[in-house]
Structures are given as C-alpha cells and as structure tokens.
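>> received
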Amino acid sequence: MKKHTPHPLQILTKLAHHHGTNIKCFLNHESPWQLLVATILSARCTDARVNIVTHDLFTRYKTINDLATTTQSDLETIIRPTGFFRNKAKNIIACAKTIRDKYDGEVPHTIEELSALPGVGRKTANVVRGNIYGDPSIAVDTHVRRVSKRLGLTKENDPVKIEFDLMKILPKENWIQYNKQIITHGRAICKAPTPKCEACFLQEECKFYSERNS
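>> returned
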C-alpha cells in the first residue's frame, strides 16, 4: 500500500475554495459571555438545539450577573433540552460568579484563565479566543477530530494532542478558519457514519479515501 502523505496547504486551499473563508460562528451570541455559555451548553449537543435554547436563555438572563444570581433549578429548566443539564447549570452559575467577582464581569482572554473557569476546557476556551478575541486557536470538536484523522493530519484520539498536531502543520493565520471549514465539511460531506467520499473535493488529499480504495 502506498504511504499517504498529507499536504496541509493544498487542503487549506481547497477548503477555502469550496467553503469560503468568512464562515461565521455556528453558535448565536451577541457578547463574549453569551458565546462562552453557548459553548458550554454545546457539549454533547447540536449547535442547532443550543441556539434554540439560548434564544430563551439570553432573553431571560441579560447580563453575566443575572446568571450568577439565578438558582440552579431555574437554569436547569431552561437548558434541560441540551442534555447533562444539572452539571451544565452548576458550571454555568459558578463560571458566571467567577467572571463577575474575579474579572469584573469581563470574560478573560488567555487560554490559562479561560481553562480555569468551571466547566471550561481547551475546546471551549479556544472557541472564545478565536471568535471573540481573534487569537489564533484550534477548537477540536467531534468534526475536527474525525475529519482531521481521516485526512491523515493526525493519528491521535485525544483532542488536546490533535490540537497540538494541527498547530504544528497549519499556518497560524488559518487556525480559526480551518476550524469552521472542517465543521462545515464534516456536517455536509465527511459525516461520521456515512461519509460522502465520492462527492468530496478532498479525495486526493484524504488518507481514509486512499486506504478505502487501494
């Protein structure tokens, strides 16, 4: 079997051509804290469902202090459709209190500060950093993990290891848009159970396709 050699720059060029470079954030928000909350809710939940829930959530809770002072039961009632609602509600309230008390109501900027917030891991921190502050970042969700592995850009399963693999081979200025392009690609073509390989414009770059057709 011929060894597959990934070509990151060719992949980026084709992604830009087919999916564009101005894809907006998939989670609806009007402020940094709203995106932070929406991303916490998106764990094991679709962005579409989160956007439905946050429409009501952000109508009721208009500031970070509103969230910090709510009761867990009230918050659970609203976010229940996102799943794991008890733990999410607990983390969101604790996160809101930390932002209010430690950061004067402003969502912190650095990966270290963000990752230290209750319920916030590297993925959530990188979503906020990339979309709010414009800091080069790669948030490894299920689509980024799956498609990046199929393309042969990483052999890892752990999201943090995948993040660092991608950071090594992708130009920093492409990190944020790669994230959005791969999510778009994963939803439309490179689906989890039934990838549409015959319709994919990345066939020549794809390890998965190469091995399946060798």
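>> The chain has a mean pLDDT of 95.
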